[in-house]
């Protein structure tokens, strides 16, 4: 069983994420998380601050994702919030301070145990490197389809 399959939640899948920019998008997503009881009221400002300091945009071969997250003190219940954007939103490439990436998917992480963060990020990098997974995700028409995709995904072995 993967960490991803344990944290994905049917109520935290959005196939029509919108925002004028990453700030507006992250504020909207944070409000949803707060309203559903997953995070504290400090989460929105904390995730914005962390995104500015440590960008999470990631250009991949077939798509681009952002994986914003912040410190465990703002997380009430662990989660993965999967958002497919209606149109790409610019994030900054991970490991840079100015390289822009037009992101199609945002995966907000809520980690309550910091020791699990690295394993979760490794799993996400693994699945987002799988062509078949990306194709199925891009073509998914319902929240249930996305949920099943994340719950049943297999890790690819390194060659």
TrEMBL record:
Query: Which InterPro entries does this UniProt record tie to the protein?
Result: PTrfase/Anion_transptr, PTS_EIIA_type-2_dom, PTS_SugarTrans_NitroReg
Q: Which residue windows are coiled coil?
A: none
Entry's Gene3D superfamilies?
Mannitol-specific EII, Chain A
Q: Which Pfam families match?
A: PTS_EIIA_2
User: PTS EIIA type-2 domain location, by residue?
Assistant: 6-153
Entry's PANTHER family?
PHOSPHOTRANSFERASE SYSTEM MANNITOL_FRUCTOSE-SPECIFIC IIA DOMAIN CONTAINING PROTEIN, PTS SYSTEM FRUCTOSE-LIKE EIIA COMPONENT-RELATED
Its name, as the record gives it, is: PTS EIIA type-2 domain-containing protein
Origin species: Granulicatella elegans ATCC 700633
């Amino acid at each position: 069983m993967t960490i991803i399959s344990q944290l994905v939640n049917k109520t935290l899948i959005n196939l029509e994420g919108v925002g004028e920019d990453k700030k507006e998008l992250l504020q909207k997503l944070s409000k949803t998380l707060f309203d559903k009881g997953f995070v504290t009221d400090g989460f929105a400002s904390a995730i914005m601050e962390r995104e500015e300091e440590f960008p999470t945009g990631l250009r991949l071969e077939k798509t681009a994702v952002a994986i914003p997250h912040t410190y465990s003190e703002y997380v009430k219940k662990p989660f993965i919030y999967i958002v497919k954007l209606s149109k790409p939103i610019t994030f900054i490439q991970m490991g840079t301070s100015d390289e822009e990436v037009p992101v199609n998917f945002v995966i907000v992480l809520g980690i309550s145990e910091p020791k699990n963060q690295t394993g979760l990020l490794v799993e996400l990098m693994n699945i987002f490197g799988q062509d078949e997974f990306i194709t199925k995700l891009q073509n998914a028409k319902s929240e249930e389809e996305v949920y099943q995709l994340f719950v049943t995904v297999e890790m690819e072995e390194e060659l």
